[in-house]
Design brief:
This protein is an alpha/beta fold. An eleven-stranded mixed beta sheet has the order 3-2-1-4-11-10-5-6-9-7-8, sandwiched between helices.
Amino acid sequence: MRIAVDAMGGDFAPQNIVAGAVLGLRAGQPISRLFLVGDQPRIEAELAKHGSRDPRSEIVHASEVIAMDDTPVQAVRRKKDSSMCRAIDLVKKGGADAVVSAGNTGALLTAAHLKLRTLEGVDRPGLACLLPGPDNVAVLMDAGANLEPHPINLVQYGVMGGLYAQQILHCRNPRVAVFSVGTEDMKGNELTLEAHRILKQTHLNFIGNMDGHDIFSNVADVIVADAFVGNAVLKACESTARLVSTHLKREIKRNPIRMLGGLLAAGAFKATKRKADPDEYGGAVLLGINGICVKAHGGSSPKAVRSALRIAAEFVEGQFNEHIIEEIKKVNDQLRQTPPQSATHASA
């Protein structure tokens, strides 16, 4: 498989991106060609730091870079020779099967949507991220792509998120829930109430509403939300994790007895950190577009970039988009068969 990497995207590009790409190739991932898109002299200088160059890597020069603070739509329109746009163009033209970028999130979502378009039957793409819990890993969707969704969009996110949980996370019968202000069926706004009603008419393992208390309670495997709520939930979880880590380190250092206890529990701390380490999960995936697009975190380490490449490879290898088209068609057919009086907004 062929993967295009935006080598200039992110806070620590190109050094971390190139280092992660080298790690990915050395990890034995099934990549036949890895395109490093960006400033050729700088990429070559970074590759030289890692010894002999892997013959599977190829540099595609791009003269421009979309900065993290650029306005997404304007940047995509004006910087056509940017590393991000050129990487997505490789997918659009069939030269690559997937694109990975740690660059400007809004620009990546805009460029991918405009250039690759949506899959057959999909109304709007959504950003899927992972929330690791004590007993399972849940798919949260949408985490930032569609700020003004219709109920059918949330339904389709349930379909695509369920496939993510089933095929990539190997969850046999993913439980799908709508994120709301309460678990009762009548709780929520117009959007969540209508999405709840439509989801009940599908073949999905829909369990109803869930609220913030149950995010890490192994209640659901797929959490459906609009982008505003989903992104807020994701960042609140990340902030909480940092706060707990900071307080724990500070309290352990308060006296020698606690420090000794910390040493004795070091293995448990490392295991816990590893399970919640965002670098292990690679990034979010934009689902519903005609191509595989992985959005790595802006501050991605080489390890995170390697994980993003692994995720991209898994989606390509599993022919994920073909399954999305099949499942979306199945759900749309189910909804067309519902009586007219109960099928409001139920078509893509």
